[in-house]
Amino acid sequence: MSLRSLGSRFHVTFSALVLLTATFVGIAHSADAAVASCAGMVATITGTQGADDLTGTPGNDVIVGLGGNDTIVGLGGDDIICGGNGADDISGGPGRDTILGQRGRDTLRGDFGSDTLRGGAGNDVLKGGKGNDTLEGGNHRDRLYGNTGRDMLKGQNGNDVANGGGGNDRIFGGGGADELVGGNGVDVCKSGPGFGTAASCETHDSPSSPVVIADFSFAPVDLTVVPGTTVIWTNDGGTAHTTSQDSQDPVNRSWDSGSLAAQDSFAVTFDVADTYSYLCSIHPFMTATVTVSPGA
Questions:
Q1: CATH 2.60.40.420 assigned to 2-16+205-292
Q2: How far does CA 137 lie from the centroid of its chain?
Q3: What's this model's pTM, rounded to 2 decimal places?
Q4: What are the tens digits of pLDDT across the range 29-79?
């Protein structure tokens, strides 16, 4: 086994976290519903102040629900959809859609394509579907779910739940006591200090076998690799961490990264088939293993 350090030794370092905020584009309309607009675009399909069932066309639509608990389906094309007031259920369909829930307890679905979903006011549910989606909550308790693509989830304010699902995702909690779950893929979770954050951003096997250490949690990952594989520990948080072998391992298997500052990395190449325990010093009671198997 050979050791290789990619980072330097540093003292504990803190970095400021920029909180992300979302700007929600409102619905503009007059007494004449024909001039209703969404995100600055004149509506091609407009609802009423009641509960409407609105369906788009195979092309690009601008759909405005106005009031009531609406059900809106964009169908094909790159659609722009505003729910308005009420608890709306909105599905974009195929295409690169922009869906704004606005006010009320909304459920937004991107379906197919790389979509942008913004919940607005109310406790909303946002589901990205297939594609590289951007999901943004609001100031209430929102639930955001990515899928198989490379998604970006932004909880904003409120006590949110954000789950990246499959793919290599970026998840930002913002203000509030958030629950951040990376899901499958190599994920990055970030949230503001002092918000009582419960973050769980885990990684899984990939060609480079990364293990990501984050600020508010360290989710140990059991990796199974073949001899000659290099495992890289990366500190993606703002607080210094240390990773090392578990004290129960023999001395000849020992490694110690020293202090890893933000974005520092440390690598170990495992040449012998066996099981190796490791830990992170900021969470001394959380351990995991690397299993090196002979392979096929």
A1: yes
A2: 12
A3: 0.56
A4: 444 445 899 998 999 999 999 999 999 999 999 999 999 999 999 998 999
